[in-house]
Amino acid sequence: MKTNFPELLRILSHEKVQFIVVGGAAGIAHGSAMITYDLDIVYDRSNENIARIVTALSEYSPYLRGAPPGLPFDWSDRTVKNGLNFTLTTSLGAIDILGEIAGGGNYDELLPEAGEIELYGINCLCLNLEKLILTKRAAGRAKDFNAIAELEALLEERAKHSDSY
After folding, report:
1. Buried b (16+ CB within 10 A) or exposed e, 33-51
2. Tens digit of each residue's pLDDT (9 = 90 or more) over 62-101
3. Exposed (0-12), middle (13-18) or buried (19+): which is 19, by Cβ within 10 Å?
């Protein structure tokens, strides 16, 4: 199933979920041509925000991605409070709800490294390019190393253009 990025961002925004876009979607927001199949967000772990995430996704059948079909899964405030990172499939596609990420930390630690950006027509917070590169390097996966080269080239290009003003 193809992920409906605009709709996932719209419902999170509509429910006033506090989150930062990270991962491949953040790369795309900064000009990357890499393809991503899921929306990765780091969320604020306050009780109120957890309740907003649960409400936002409840009607879209969230289920643990990769879990055997039929395995009981209770999408609730309690589940999210007792967990940290959730890789989910929904009727809108794949979304990773992350309490923290390698090389970046949690929502509060990432907040100074995020800025408001329009992504798929929705204003949301997005991790800056420098910190995105650091988090991808810390994740250490082969696909992240491929993305790092492109993201560093984008950063270099941005630096060249800012020097010319």
Report:
1. eeebebbbbbbbbeeebbb
2. 999 999 989 999 999 999 999 999 999 999 999 999 999 9
3. buried
Angstrom CA distances, 78 to 6, 45, 50, 89, 118, stand at 27, 12, 9, 19, 32
Q: Is the pLDDT of residue 164 over 60?
A: no
69-74: long-range contacts, CB 8 A cutoff, minimum separation 24? none
Q: In the prediction, which pLDDT does 42 show?
A: 98
CB of 56 closer than 8 Å to CB of 71: no
CA distance linking residue 61 with residue 148, whole number of Å: 33
Of 160 and 52, which is predicted with more confidence?
Answer: 52
> From the centroid of its chain, how far is CA 143?
16
CA separation for the pair 160, 85 (Å, rounded): 37
50, pLDDT greater than 50: yes
Q: Tell me the backbone φ, ψ of residue 11, rounded to 5 degrees.
A: -70, -35
**The amino acid at 1:** M
